[in-house]
Specification:
- It comes from Mycena metata.
- The chain is α/β, with parallel strands linked by helices.
- The chain has two domains: 11-225, 3-Layer(aba) Sandwich (Rossmann fold); 244-332, P-loop containing nucleotide triphosphate hydrolases (Rossmann fold, 3-Layer(aba) Sandwich), CATH 3.40.50.300.
- Helix content is 38%, strand content 12%.
- The protein has 14 helices and nine strands.
- It has helices at residues 11-25, 32-42, 57-68, 86-98, 113-118, 120-127, 135-138, 141-148, 151-156, 167-170, 183-188, 205-214, 274-286, 306-317; strands spanning 47-50, 78-82, 103-106, 130-133, 157-162, 196-200, 222-225, 267-270, 323-326.
- The strands form two sheets. A seven-stranded parallel sheet has the order 3-4-2-5-6-1-7. The protein has a two-stranded parallel ribbon with strand order 8-9.
- Helix 1 (11-25) packs across helix 3.
């Protein structure tokens, strides 16, 4: 049962797919790389998607699905996503379901894996449009028996998405998650011609070459790449002039003319531990000019309350927060 690509793309359905994606995810329009990737998949063209963090990589995953399916209709098309982190897979499923896209994450944390796998034709086709699994689950005997041998699942599968594909090189060795480099076995079990969407963020050429080799994909596979240049972001390096524990060098962040919050360039200050972040916030607040609201400076780390995390993230988005000393917890926030 080979994969059946869309031979002639319907312009009206493409337009509806793009508009519905925008409506569902609350974005003004799709980027060209998202549309190109989705249309490649519809045509049955395997694609390597290399987009910087925050570039809307995952939106491209769903474009082909929305060509066939709209929220509320009975289309049974499905996408299978393989990713490295259980927490991320579960978060993606939660986000998709909240937006009306039925999704199931089948992970080691699933309360009843056997029930999810037992009736694959019901749960993974008639109910869900997206299935998310880790490499170990995807290559397990029970997943093969309950899902991959299910004719209905195979008939309606649109694409296999391999997310965070750089992990195939970074992990996948004999000592740590060896199944990651065996994902090619999963691809070989799918209907012939099923397009594979390989996705990562800003991978160098040697890593791309290794990923394609491990997946047994041709070197001339279609590649959709976006530069990681961000003209509104800069990185500056300063040699400390005072003792690090004093945080006195943070004074250099203050502008010469600091009369309103907007005068302070919006800044993320990454530190190694929570106490550093908290002490930096205190220093910035203690040394601000009179009349400037101290709350424009606020620390962030994994142990603060979820409500506060959301408030700080919103403050960064609307520019009311001007400097945030933070651990890498802020770097794990989904764009």
């Amino acid at each position: 049962m080979p994969f059946s690509p869309v031979v002639i793309l319907d312009p009206e359905r493409l337009k509806i797919a793009a508009q519905t994606l925008c409506d569902v995810f609350g974005i003004p329009c799709l980027h060209p790389h998202q549309e190109e990737t989705g249309q490649n998949i519809l045509r049955g063209i395997s694609t390597f998607l290399d987009v910087p963090t925050g570039g809307g990589k995952t939106i491209a995953f769903w474009y082909a699905l929305f060509y066939h399916w709209q929220p509320g209709n009975t289309c049974q098309k499905i996408i299978l996503v393989v990713g490295p982190q259980v927490g991320l897979l579960e978060a993606q499923a939660k986000t998709l379901n909240a937006k009306g896209i039925p999704a199931a994450a089948i992970t080691s944390n699933s309360e009843d894996i056997e029930e999810l796998l037992l009736v694959a034709d019901t749960l993974l086709v008639r109910t869900y449009r997206v299935g998310l699994v880790g490499p170990e689950m995807a290559l397990s005997t029970r997943f093969h028996e309950k899902v991959l041998k299910n004719d209905l699942f195979m008939k309606h599968l649109i694409t296999l998405v391999i997310d965070e594909a750089h992990c195939i090189c970074e992990w996948g060795g004999d000592d740590f998650r060896p199944d990651y480099r065996k994902i090619v076995e999963l691809a070989s079990r799918l209907p012939s011609g099923t397009p594979i969407l390989v996705a990562t963020a800003t991978a160098p050429r040697d890593v791309i070459r290794d990923i394609l080799r491990y997946l047994d994909l041709p070197a001339d596979i279609a590649q959709v790449q976006v530069s990681n240049a961000k003209l509104n972001v800069s990185l500056s390096v300063h040699i400390l002039q005072r003792e690090p524990e004093s945080y006195a060098d943070l004074i250099t962040l203050y502008p010469d003319e600091f009369e309103k919050p907007e005068d302070f360039l919006q800044t993320l200050i990454y530190v190694n531990d929570r106490q550093e972040a908290e002490k930096m916030q205190d220093f910035l607040r203690d040394n601000k000019p009179e009349g400037i609201d101290a709350k424009i400076f606020e620390f962030y780390h994994k142990d603060i309350a979820e409500e506060r995390k959301t408030a700080i993230q919103n403050g960064l988005n609307d520019a009311t927060k001007r400097a945030v000393p933070t651990t890498d917890a802020l770097g794990l926030v989904s764009p």
